[in-house]
Design a protein that fits this description.
Length: about 425
């Protein structure tokens, strides 16, 4: 969420940032709400002050035997007490209106984010690896993985579209990928492994900018909890409302969890195969840092995701997202896109985003500046995938496929496969 004080300080810069996102100016309307709310706050303070002063004067008047003055002061205090609740409600309503308006405005892009309308305007930063060559026509995973145990039909029968039942070695390969990822992130990059709840309250979803804008993209339970769309929500919300010590930063957390998305905003996309599921697993990366460290942390986090792809020897490219393709809460995002030979295309496997103080404002999370007892600042938060397990499984299946329908297990995963070096079609 945006800090209204910063908008007051430089409304032109705020509107310029929105313009890069393709949005109309909003500073004027926000500041009008803010001015009216602050006027009511001032009025309330004046009423409270006058009520307190008048109450003191009543005692003085009574002590002096001036009942007429005392009665007039009592009447004034009574009127103030009668009027104050209405003013308080007006102030509360305007504050809620201002917060609601701020809550649906996306983060402003960083200065080096390219302006553009959609993914066609994203900028390739680098690429890695040689695309595999085959002496046969490579297939999409949806066409050969069912014979390996990727059962789309049973998943659909049990749960509906976009659910998959994995069996045998393909299920083991899926598990191996997740284990490999979290082992590397904790061992090589110092992320602390966590096992957070996958059911969260409204505050956690709101604080991590998933509410109110993306309510339709998530699943809600009958007791009004939310199934996490990503463990970014649980991990980042673990510091919600906290005043952290500077010495505790940076905080780096990772979790391998189930994630759930209704995909309401993705109707008709990737309906075949394992690319876009309602239930999936992801190795999430979250960092909580000081503002001056967030840009370097963004590069570090992206590298942590790249290392996984390189260890699996999967060709990929690193894209800097333009303003029109960047997520709601991000100020800058790198997308890692893995090569899928069956599709003949690169597909997203790891978005890594710096949200700046955007989530920290919503969560009310600050840190105490070392050596300055009274000075506090909002932290910066970052999140990324290290990686999405299901999409990594698809990439391994397609890049390591053989002409006979088998799939060779990547070297990096063999220690996790219990001696299985090749996935064979199930008879």
């Amino acid at each position: 969420m945006h800090d209204i004080r910063l908008i007051r300080d430089d409304p032109a810069a705020f509107d310029a940032g929105l313009a890069k996102r393709g949005l109309e100016p909003q500073a004027q309307s926000l500041l009008a709400l803010d001015e009216n709310r602050r006027a009511l706050t001032t009025k309330l303070q004046e009423m409270q002050s006058r009520r307190n002063d008048a109450s003191k004067q009543i005692g003085q008047a009574m002590g002096q035997g001036d009942t007429e003055k005392a009665d007039a002061l009592k009447a004034e205090v009574a009127e103030i007490k009668q009027t104050m609740p209405q003013v308080e409600e007006e102030e509360r309503a305007l504050g809620a209106e201002l917060e609601a308006a701020l809550a649906v405005i996306p983060n402003l892009p960083a200065d080096d984010v390219p302006q553009g309308e959609d993914e066609a305007d994203n900028v390739e930063i680098s690429s890695w690896g040689d695309k595999p060559s085959f002496d046969f026509e490579p297939k999409e995973h949806a066409d050969f993985a069912p014979a390996l145990g990727m059962d789309f039909e049973t998943g659909a029968n049990i749960s509906g579209a976009r659910f998959t039942f994995l069996r045998g070695d393909v299920a083991r390969l899926h598990r191996a990928l997740g284990q490999f990822m979290i082992d590397r992130q904790t061992r090589d990059f110092g992320y602390v492994e966590c096992n957070p709840p996958v059911l969260v309250k409204d505050d956690a979803m709101y604080g991590t900018d998933k509410l109110p804008k993306f309510a339709e993209d998530s699943f809600r339970t009958t007791d009004e909890r939310w199934l996490i769309p990503t463990s970014e929500v649980s991990l980042t919300a673990s510091v919600m409302g906290e005043l952290l010590e500077e010495s505790a930063l940076p905080m780096r957390m990772t979790a391998l969890t189930l994630c759930f998305r209704s995909e309401a905003g993705s109707a008709g996309k990737d309906t075949r195969g394992f690319i876009r599921q309602h239930q999936f697993e992801k190795c999430e990366l979250v960092s909580v840092v000081k503002p001056e460290d967030s840009e370097a942390e963004h590069e570090r986090m992206t590298e942590a995701a790249e290392v996984i792809l390189e260890a699996l020897e999967l060709p990929y490219r690193k894209m800097l997202l333009c303003t029109g393709d960047m997520g709601f809460g991000a100020r800058k995002t790198y997308d890692l896109e893995v090569w899928l030979p069956g599709q003949g295309a690169y597909r997203e496997i790891s978005p890594c985003s710096n949200t700046g103080a955007f989530q920290a404002h919503r969560m009310k999370t600050r840190y105490r500046v070392a050596g300055e007892k009274k000075k506090t600042e909002h932290v910066h938060t970052l999140n990324g995938s290290g990686l999405a397990v299901g999409r990594a499984l698809v990439a391994v299946l397609e890049n390591y496929q053989n002409a006979d329908g088998s799939v060779t297990v990547p070297e990096a995963l063999k220690p996790y496969m219990g001696g299985v070096e090749k996935l064979e079609p199930i008879a």
